[in-house]
Design a protein that fits this description.
The chain is an alpha/beta fold and 566 residues long. It has 13 helices and 27 strands. A hairpin with a 5-residue loop joins strand 19 and strand 20. Helix 2 crosses helix 11 and helix 11 crosses helix 12. The longest helix is centred in the first third of the chain and has 16 residues. The N terminus is likely disordered. The structure holds adenosine-5'-triphosphate and magnesium ion. The site of adenosine-5'-triphosphate (ATP) has 16 residues, from helix 2, strand 9 and helix 9.
Length: 566
């Protein structure tokens, strides 16, 4: 797979929109555009699904068409109501609306059954007694044709009788299947008498125990598209080889025939977009759940602080490809940063506090500085920030023995406090182990405006909070979930879990933020000046005790990379 960087907004139309334009010109579907997003409710949606949602709902909107939400719920053992609910929540949160077009493939079980009977009557399907294992053995390989099943030439009557009895529950799981009668010598393995139904005595989350035969994906999918009058059935590349089968079923049935179009899945570096693998991380307790802020799930990203706008922007800019590729995680971060820059109010918070005492500032004096809430948005207004004799600054902003190019606070050195005075470090207090525990500073009362009347310059401005007023909070910092750009790389017998990043989560239990954040509400997003964008955690915060997740730092690795490339 080729690693590439997403392009800025596509200048020309992608190939899917070109196909639709052509269909509209030729009147192929009477000028209709009707798409669908068909998730299987066997896990939470991830960023790859977001891509598909934006594409399907986006195309419907652009062409003044419709897009359905359809649960592809044909596999009762892996699916649940919880999953259908979170999927609906996520699609809505992304900003899309299926209106009254919520469907379930399970609603079509009766129709599919009747259509299967029609195929049997046409001698286009038969009941087969081979086991799954035997079917595999008969299938042949890419270079060798398959072998016909000994049950392939059963009479229509016998097939109808057996299929009815399969449906009525006479046979145990795995003893019989219904198969399409196509061509065991076809170069396309999907056409070698694919299984349409299997027997599974399992409770379905919607149809209960009404059915003990369940349709396979290929049989259910195209027919569901047809029932709903879908025009363009957009799916990912792995279904390209299934298209002949998709078409075959619809031709045999002589029903409405949508156009299947395949595009490349979205892959993102340093993470994984496979529900099966994400489920393993959840089940093994490697993450706290599907909505762990490190997860590439929509619910995880929401909790992390991503906006729906930023995810939509990302999906649009990534575009639609015909060839598999990997998008850099840094590009996703670039998008969320760009969006949050416009909407997130600025505040000050200190992640790793060190105490500063301003020796020449009166003990009980408190001043207030006016601070701009968002330089990108005048309507966001200003707020007041208290200043007093004792402050906290970031431990990293002080160096006792400053290396070259470190311009922030050091013994004898002066810096500017954001929104306020110049302070100068006069002495350093250590504890018994030699660790710096406090800085003794002085301030220059003439520099309240942020500048010195005598024109002297400082080389750095640092953020701070008033110790007396600051609110103690917990902050969670994140890195990518995997250290490897491609955690799917299974060379050397490794699997994706071998590439987990041990530093993907860092909990800082004792941070201090300015008092305006005391009542920050779950889900609210802020820029902590110089540190990044943060979002109040929706699960672990309590009134007066917000917990902050860092959504993204301010450092734009993607932009730097682009510059370097130029
Ligand atoms: P997973 O491999 O994670 O289980 P899936 O394709 O099996 O994904 P579905 O619930 O069947 O999951 O997917 C619903 C729709 O989303 C399908 O049309 C599928 O093609 C699309 N989709 C899934 N993953 C991606 C992806 N990474 N990029 C683009 N579209 C995707
Ligand atoms: Mg699937």
């Amino acid at each position: 797979m080729e690693v590439m960087t997403a392009n800025e907004p596509a200048a020309s139309k992608d190939f899917i929109r070109e196909i639709i334009d052509e269909d509209l010109k030729t009147g192929k579907f009477d000028g209709r555009v009707h798409t669908r997003f068909p998730p299987e409710p066997n896990g939470y949606l991830h960023i790859g699904h977001a891509k598909s949602i934006c594409l399907n709902f986006g195309i419907a909107k652009e062409y003044k068409g419709l897009c359905n939400l359809r649960f592809d719920d044909t596999n009762p053992t892996k699916e649940s109501v919880e999953y259908t609910q979170t999927i609906m929540e996520d699609v809505k949160w992304l900003g899309f609306d299926w209106e009254d077009r919520l469907f379930y493939a399970s609603d079509y079980f009766r129709q599919l059954y009747e259509w299967a009977v029609r195929l049997i009557e046409k001698s286009a399907a038969y009941v087969c007694d081979l086991t799954a294992e035997e079917i595999r053995e008969h299938r042949g390989t890419l270079t060798e044709p398959g072998k016909e099943s000994p049950y392939r030439n059963r009479s229509v009557e016998e097939n109808l009788d057996l299929f009815t009895r399969m449906k009525d529950g006479e046979f145990p799981d795995g003893t019989k299947t219904l198969r399409a009668k196509i061509d065991m010598a076809s170069p396309n393995l999907n056409m070698r008498d694919p299984v349409m139904y299997r027997i599974l005595h399992a409770e379905h989350h919607r149809t209960g125990d009404n059915w003990c035969i369940y349709p396979m994906y290929d049989w259910a999918h195209g027919q569901s598209d047809s029932v709903e009058g879908i025009t363009h059935s957009i799916c990912t590349l792995e279904f390209e080889d299934h298209r002949p089968l998709y078409d075959w079923f619809l031709e045999q049935l002589e029903v409405h025939h949508p156009q299947q179009i395949e595009f490349a899945r979205l892959n993102l570096s340093h993470t994984i977009v496979s529900k099966r693998k994400l489920l393993k991380l959840v089940e093994d307790g490697i993450v706290s759940g599907w909505d762990d802020p490190r997860m590439p799930t929509i619910s995880g990203m929401r909790r992390r602080g991503y906006t729906p706008q930023s995810i939509r922007m990302f999906c649009d800019r990534v575009g639609v490809a015909k060839k598999d590729n990997v998008i850099e995680f840094a590009f996703l971060e670039h998008c969320v940063r760009e969006d949050l820059n416009k909407r997130a109010p600025r505040v000050m918070g200190v992640l790793r506090p060190i105490r500063v005492v301003i020796e020449n500032y009166p003990e009980d004096k408190v001043e207030e500085f006016e601070a701009v809430n968002n330089p990108e948005d005048e309507s966001a207004g200003t707020r007041m920030i208290p200043f007093s004799r004792e402050l906290y600054i970031e431990r990293d902003d002080f160096h006792e023995d400053p290396p070259k190019k470190f311009y922030r606070l050091a013994p004898g050195r002066e810096v500017r406090l954001r929104c306020g005075y110049f302070i100068k470090c006069e002495s350093v207090v250590h504890d018994d182990s030699g660790e710096v525990v406090e800085l003794r500073c002085t301030y220059d009362p003439e520099t309240r405006s942020g500048n010195a009347p005598d024109g002297r310059k400082v080389k750095a401005t640092i953020h701070w909070v008033s110790a007396l007023h600051a609110v103690p909070v917990e902050v969670r910092l994140y890195e990518t979930l995997f250290t490897e750009a491609n955690p799917q790389n299974e060379s050397g017998g490794k699997t994706f879990v071998d590439y987990l990043n041990p530093n993907s989560l860092e909990v800082l239990p004792d941070c201090r933020v300015e008092p305006s954040l005391t009542d920050a509400q779950p889900g609210e997003r802020y820029q902590f000046e110089r540190l990044g964008y943060f979002c109040v955690d929706t699960k672990d915060s309590s009134p007066g005790k917000p917990v902050f997740n860092r959504t993204v730092t301010l450092r734009d690795d993607w932009a730097r990379l682009q510059k370097k490339k130029q």
